[in-house]
Amino acid sequence: MKAIFPALIGLTVAGSGAAASHALGKRTPFSLDVTIHSTGNTNVMATVTNSGDEGYNLYFKNTLLDTSAVDKVVVTVDENKVPSNGLRLVFNRYKLSPTHFLKLEPGEVRQVEFDIAETYRLQDSPHGIHEVSAEGYFLYAELNSTQTIGRIPYASNKLVLQIDQEQAAVVYEQANPDYRDRDLRKRSIIDKNHCSSSQAYTIAQGQRYVTNWAQKAANAVSTGYPPQLFNAYWKSKVYIDEIKTCYTGIANEAAGIGGDKITIACRDTGTGDSCAGEAGEDPPLAFAREYDSLMVLCPPYWDAPIIVNTCSPDQSSQVETLMHELTHFQNVCGHTCDDLAYGRAASKGLPYSDAVDNADTYALFAQDYINNCSG
What we know:
Elements: H1 4-14, E1 32-40, E2 43-50, E3 56-59, E4 74-77, E5 80-81, E6 87-90, E7 101-104, E8 109-115, E9 129-141, E10 148-162, H2 165-175, H3 179-184, H4 197-223, H5 227-233, H6 240-255, E11 263-265, E12 286-289, E13 294-297, H7 318-326, H8 330-333, H9 343-348, H10 352-355, H11 359-370
Helix pairs in contact: 4-6, 4-7, 4-11, 7-11
């Protein structure tokens, strides 16, 4: 699939200006400087500086400022990406917690240090020379607000590190003591060792909805129908094959067709508890870990309704969350979707080149199509 960051750069330049910073789906002019430097073997320090004249409330979850075990940087060896077991956390996208935002005033600096060996399998690389860079975007809100109004892209310098792979292996095993068991685990769509019978029943019920939604969404996308809703979310038929492939993969996975690729558990199966969230932060609804094809449904997930039958207001449902998370798996969707925008308004504000890679766009288009919502 296409690279995300180059698309962001081109659209940022085209959409720069005073109005761009206060519209959903738009980007601000470049005003965040991100640099990284090595602090020893696999340890990296990232520095984020607000070099603009405007203060931001940055949504930092699933970014390089997140202290959770998420993918913070891009690590390559011989121009190939190094496998990672980084998490993709999903929260209630319609009521983002203040604990997931960082205030960044003009001139203010934030720093975070992390060990890339905790999530990247550097020990499996053919040699120790690796390149590390940080690129992506921050969703942001105005100061003292949690209503995201746009995205700020960034790109750091590139590091070339000579890594001690034996030491990296030790760090990885300490951070992932159960990884050998995960690598050997038999795939099953519902991990009944980590889900109660009632939870397994509820998941199976949700999967039936997901199959139905995804099948109907795939058919709708193929015809561009209904045009008002199609144009609101997808804007163009340029990537119609990729969109249909993703929906078809989701429908097949939820129905158990072609072999179950994803394991769904109802608690963290590792030694830590990523469902608990970081200290002082609200916990996630769920998280996806693409490396070992694992989706974990956390306690807040079960508080959401199974489905939402209305077009507004925005509200998370179990089925929408399942569909959202399944787009994060390349072996299901055909490409790995990201979280480029949350909620209806922001998702509809994306250009077609970003909509194809946005997890919420798939879930919300399907839900709105089922509910006969207008564009």
